[in-house]
Amino acid sequence: MSVILECENLTKRYGARTALDHINLKLEAGRIIGLLGPNGSGKSTLIKLINDLLSPTEGILRIAGHAPGLETKKIVSYLPERTYLDENLKVSSYISYFTDFYEDFDASRAVDMLQRLDIDPDLRIKTLSKGTQEKVQLILVMSRRARLYCLDEPIAGVDPAARDYILSTIINNYDENATILISTHLISDVENILDEVVFIHNGNIRLQAQVDDVRCNQGKSIDELFREVFKC
Amino acid sequence: MLRKIFKYEWKTIFPLLLGVHCVGLAVAVFCRIGINLMGGVRSENVSIMAALLLTAAIMAIGCVVFYTYFYTGYRFYKSVFTQQGYLTNTLPVTADQLIWGKGLTAVIWVTIDCLWAIAALFVLVLSPEDVAELIRDLPEAFSALFHTKAPALTWLLVITMLLTPFFMTIQIYVAAAIGNLFTGHKLLATICSYIGISFIQQVFSLVILAATAPHMAQFNYQVKQTSENVYTTVNVAGFMTNCVGLSLAFTVLCAVGFYFLSRYVLNHKLNLE
Asked: A84 to chain B: which residues are within 8 Å by CB?
């Protein structure tokens, strides 16, 4: 398996606060990886660094051998924890927008997913509920044939039915050679789809393990292990 | 990619700015009709209402001009440094393409806006006879502009006019880029940066002019000697040419500096916490 993501002594500080503290991490391609940790542990910071939305204070970050930049933006699909859609635009405008900018965007797949959810592409974003806006954003992100998907808290703030839809969308719409990095603190909802987990706490990697190993060797679910590791 | 950035930026801001300019023009037309009904503003006894209408219309035109400029700047701030920036900054485009794509849209709108403001003012104050006379005399006036004793001054003023929309745009962009460096209240930081940049620039401009003006005046002295007295006069056109040239050079230097600073922030100091 090739390495899709590599961090060497990666550090990010916001003034005096250290969000990531010299982390070393290597992720292999073709896996669904859970980036798990409590709020404020550094998950979103790591994902933003991967997407070139923040610059590291120290250390090296490589995605498929490239530093974050133009080349990596072509192969990384990012779902932020907040809605980035302009509420005055129509859903169909975003289909055209993604088609124009991303060579790997599959418009027919996006339209198909919208139809299944009964979302009219001619509606403006502002007329959609918050949950539907999040689904539209997820559809756009998952309709790319990217090599790395970074999903930051994709199921936070949505009802259980929507969570099921989001998770099934993620599983059904990714290429086997692609990697999905899901950041969340809602472990029990995602653990069934994960191949690997990375526990992060206070900007440090606490654990990196295969899900099957945890279950077989330690006889625990990821949720149980998470509660044990991050016990207050 | 530059073309695509430009296309989407244009499509996004076009409907709103078109509407604002149509409303502004309608206000100018209605004010003109109102002023005419009150006897106009050229007669000796101008009514207070007519004068008030004229003032209101000029203020409305000014508001449209300011709104257009600050809206294009706000669009850059919003699409690059707020939540929308999560999409804009993950597009496979370079910082140069982003600045130029969005910047050209802003430059075109600022230029349209200036022409629109002139047209609106014409609607407000000129009569059909004035317009006909203006159109008739325009070629001659243009020709005269470039056949003065100081054609360089005319050219410098023309270049300054053409570059001003670029300069205005990059100035507001660099303010947004500096505002992004702050951890909180980024919009406020952007506004303060804009005011700060304008102030510093004015001070520098004045200092440079104050320091160089005496030397430039010296270069342009014309000494006319008569049998009794020595008269020294300043060649005003030459002096103005040097002043405008210096001011233009300073503006261009600032614009280039602002461009590279904005580019640097987008490439290395993006701060979308």
From this structure: 83-87
pLDDT at residue B234, rounded to an integer: 56
**Pair of tokens at residue A171:** 């599983």
* Partner residue opposite B268 with nearest CB, options A55, A76, A78: A55
Close Cβ partners of A189 (under 8 Å, ≥ 6 residues apart):
A155, A163, A167
Q: Tell me the domain boundaries of chain B.
A: 15-144, 146-273
pLDDT per residue as tens digits for the range B196-213? 999 998 888 888 777 777
Strand partners, A201: A204
ipTM field: 0.86
- Most A CBs within 10 A among B74, B77, B86, hence the mutation to make, goes to B86
Return the pLDDT at B244. Answer: 81
pLDDT of residue B208: 78
The closest CB to that of A101, out of B86, B91, B268, belongs to B91
**Which candidate in B90, B98, B265 is best for mutational testing of the A interface (most A CBs within 10 A)?**
B90
Residues of chain A falling short of pLDDT 70: 1, 157, 232
User: A201: helix, coil or strand?
Assistant: strand
Which residues in chain A belong to E strands, given as ranges? 3-14, 17-28, 32-36, 58-63, 76-79, 148-152, 179-184, 196-201, 204-210
Q: B271 contacts in A (CB within 8 Å)?
A: 54
Main-chain dihedrals φ then ψ at residue A29, nearest 5 degrees:
-75, 160
Residues of chain B with pLDDT under 50: none
pTM, to two decimals: 0.82
